[in-house]
Write a structure and sequence with these properties.
This protein is of the alpha+beta class and about 750 residues long. The chain is built from 16 helices and 39 strands. The strands form ten sheets. It has an eight-stranded parallel β-barrel. It has a six-stranded antiparallel β-sheet with strand order 32-33-34-39-36-37. Strand 33 and strand 34 form a beta hairpin. Helix 5 runs parallel beside helix 6, helix 8 runs parallel beside helix 10 and helix 15 packs parallel to helix 16. The chain starts with 9 loop residues before the first helix and ends with a strand.
């Protein structure tokens, strides 16, 4: 047992330690969990009279004074600790205060004197009351604070008539959290935050700060004394990479002009409406060549991308993740700032302008969203408060083997709340029309991409991630309840049932699901030499066995034209003539097949190069007749898609589709009907997957009369050979394909034709 100089053991000494002095030592060491207990105004007694003790801590100051709202000196402060703790004792009358009552934070200021003679003056951060209510804290813990982004993060506020910034962060295992930034020379001793107890929330109002301030959170962990410097998980803006500080930004001042769009969206039935999505990577759609091939801004995208997409006939623009991310080559899929639009292309207001412009021009906006994983960057969510806070501690649950990223702990209420609030945020604040949820399969399965022994079964002994499933269902229920007409879309590549069925019937609740099976089978089939296609005919027709099990989108996405997979054009077999004919065939077949449509940028121009984030779409191809022909075809397919109800109205039921001939494998020809809700309104599609012209090819039709040729992918307008049927054919009373009438048509090589009575 140790003995102090007075002969008493240390246990006895500790019993008589002055709590105030102990708090001072803790504060000056940067370990105090509630600096408000010491700093700011405190009522005390001197010589039996109530007085006001105002304390301030600033290690760099040589003097501190208290001044009133007219800058009159009220009282110089005494330095009561060598580390920089000052105390001024004031009579209550100087601040027109009554003993035991709260002090008006605006009634005084602190004036700091520094060794170089400079003076700074500010309101006292530690005179302001708590801003988060107990009800807020309760909802945080319950995981149901769906507007959490309005409470945590950084918000420009006026408190007690004083303008400043309110900061809030969740760090339950921290011993101390400080706001650091340019305004305090990144010194964590100067602005320690107030702990809100068991909620794990820390908050602080710093007067005098405004939009544009750079900041982070310095977090001293209770676990192992780990000291971390973290960007704000709820920040609305961030520095341009490689810098990583968060930026104070108010997002509530933009004047929206899309009320008509939002009102119409609320009652829009997208499942029975045309939907053709143009998928775009904002950083490589187009560069500003005159300025060193820089990225174009959100506002430039609004001025250039929006009219282009509209003129091409697309109904939606889907952006690869525009949330803040440090690594360009991740295309945004390794998100760090879930609430911040990336600063690469402008400000939050600039992005709002882009969305607003889309809506005013009749285009919906879909964002890719990444709740399946997040990167390990030191300034991000990983090991946030010195513990595995957002991620699972066990790598068998918390690490993603494919991408080297971390997996959210979906079973934790606060983490669920972070993701739910984030999904709603993009619709609440940016008027986004839908979220395409990335890598859903990796969320659903505990053994996703893991070998035996590398994963932990769920509580029932199965491989389903029950916590992630609960999150997904809850997300879809809440989002659709709060934003009628908004869409959620699953990128899900397995046979998980009822992905796009409502939660109340046992589904996951998504509106739509990417049809990865159709994409893989179709691209594999179309890349074959036509000589061998008849032996793989089943790969072409197989998709109709399950086409109506889900509400499918047919995706020809960025994933299929990158990392050595080749562009769509270069996947096609044969010489250039055959490549372009095959691509026209693929696109014509896709737009006739049941399902909504998605096409990645550059594919509408038959770009030869793969997608690369550092380049741009090869716009010079618009000067090439063959490439321009593909562009014209996509535009016309979009217009047919939106003008012909038979091509969009019944995408997800058998009543909208009918095979005419599915089994002509020897000729590699398929024909089918698409019907609208009015069964007499139909379009016939005939696809010839060989480079052989087939004259006199007979197809059964349900009724007599003339049939117009409303699309021919071999048209001269698309740089084809211009073979066809002179605009139409007449049905003959010759039974064929189990139908009472038939038409005899000429099928150009490698072509698709649409006919309509």
């Amino acid at each position: 047992m140790s003995i102090d100089e007075g002969g008493k053991n240390s246990t006895e000494v500790n019993q008589f330690r002055d709590p105030f002095q102990e708090g001072v030592e803790t504060l000056t060491r940067g370990e105090h969990a509630d600096p408000f207990q010491l700093l700011g105004p405190h009522w005390t007694e001197r010589e039996g009279r109530p007085v006001l003790a105002i304390r301030a801590f600033h290690p760099g100051a040589v003097g501190v004074s208290v001044v009133d709202d007219a800058n009159r000196l009220l009282q110089p402060a005494e330095k009561i600790h060598p580390s920089g703790l000052f105390e001024a004792i004031l009579s209550p009358t100087l601040l027109r205060a009554r003993p035991a009552e709260a002090i008006d934070p605006a009634s005084y200021r602190l004036r700091f004197l520094f060794p170089d003679g400079n003076l700074t003056q500010t309101y006292d951060t530690y005179a302001f009351p708590p801003l988060l209510s107990e009800y807020d804290n309760y909802l945080f813990g319950e995981g149901t604070h769906y507007l959490k982004y309005e409470k945590l993060g950084a918000h420009v506020r006026e408190v007690a008539g004083v303008k400043g910034v309110e900061f809030g962060v969740w760090a339950p295992n921290a011993k101390r959290v400080s706001v650091v930034g340019d305004f305090n020379l990144w010194d964590g001793r100067l602005h320690p935050m107030r702990s809100r107890g068991v909620s794990g929330i820390w908050e602080l109002f710093i007067p005098g700060l405004d939009q544009g301030a750079l900041y982070k959170f310095e977090i001293l962990s209770r676990v192992g004394g780990h000291l971390g410097l973290k960007s704000d998980p709820y920040a609305f803006a961030s520095e341009l990479r490689p810098n990583t500080a968060s930026v104070v930004y108010s997002i509530d001042h933009y004047q929206w002009n899309d009320s008509a769009w939002l009102q119409a969206r609320a009652s829009r039935d997208w499942l029975h409406s045309p939907m053709s999505i143009y998928e775009v990577h904002a950083g490589s759609w187009r560069h500003q060549k005159q300025e060193g091939h820089r990225w174009i801004s959100y506002r430039e995208l609004a001025d250039e991308l929006v009219p282009y997409a509209k003129n091409m006939g697309f109904t939606h623009i889907e952006l690869l993740p525009i949330m803040e991310h440090p690594f360009d080559a991740s295309w945004g899929y390794q998100t760090v700032g879930y609430y911040a639009v990336t600063s690469r292309f402008g400000t939050p207001a600039d992005f709002m302008y882009f969305v607003d412009t889309c809506h005013q021009q009749g285009l919906g906006v879909i964002l890719d969203w990444t709740p399946a994983h997040f990167p390990r960057d030191a300034h991000g969510l990983a090991f946030f408060d010195g513990t595995h806070l957002y991620e699972h501690a066990d790598p068998r649950r918390g690490e993603h083997p494919d991408w080297g990223t971390l997996v959210f702990n979906y079973g934790r209420n606060e983490v669920q709340n972070f993701l739910l609030s984030n999904a709603l945020f993009w619709l609440d604040k940016y008027h986004i029309d839908g979220l395409r949820v990335d890598a859903v399969a990796s969320m659903l399965y505990l053994d996703y991409s893991r070998k035996a022994g590398e994963w932990i079964p769920n509580e029932l002994g199965g491989r389903e991630n029950l916590e992630a499933i609960a999150l997904i269902k809850r997300l879809n229920e809440i989002l659709h309840q709060r934003h009628p007409g908004a869409l959620t879309i699953a990128e899900e590549s397995t046979a998980w049932p009822a992905v796009s069925r409502p939660v109340y019937v046992g589904g996951l609740g998504f509106d739509l699901k990417w049809n990865m099976g159709w994409m893989n089978d179709t691209l594999r089939y179309i890349s074959l030499d036509p000589l061998y296609r008849k032996h793989h005919h089943g790969e072409l027709t197989f998709s109709l066995l399950y086409a109506f099990h889900e509400n499918f989108i047919l995706p020809l996405s960025h994933d299929e034209v990158v990392h050595g997979k080749r562009s769509l054009l270069e996947k096609m077999p044969g010489d250039d003539w055959q490549k372009f004919a095959n691509l026209r065939l693929l696109l014509g077949y896709m737009f006739a097949h049941p399902g909504k449509k998605l096409l990645f940028m550059g594919s509408e121009l038959a770009q030869r190069n793969e997608f690369w984030e550092a380049s741009e779409v090869d716009w010079s191809l618009e000067d090439s007749p063959w490439h321009r022909g593909i562009q014209r075809l996509v535009s016309d397919l979009n217009r047919l898609h939106t003008s012909e109800p038979a091509l969009y109205q019944v995408d997800f039921e058998w009543s909208g589709f009918e095979w005419i001939e599915a089994n002509d494998a020897d000729a590699s020809v398929v024909s089918f009907m698409r019907r609208s809700r009015e069964q007499d309104n139909f379009v016939i599609a005939v696809c010839n997957f060989t480079p052989v012209v087939r004259e006199g090819y007979r197809i059964g039709v349900p009724r007599p009369g003339d049939y117009r040729e409303i699309l021919n992918t071999d048209s001269r307008y698309y740089e084809g050979t211009d073979l066809g049927n002179a605009g139409g054919v007449h049905a003959e009373p010759i039974p064929w394909n189990d139908r009472p009438y038939s038409i005899k048509v000429t099928l150009p090589a490698l072509s698709v034709m649409y006919f309509k009575p």
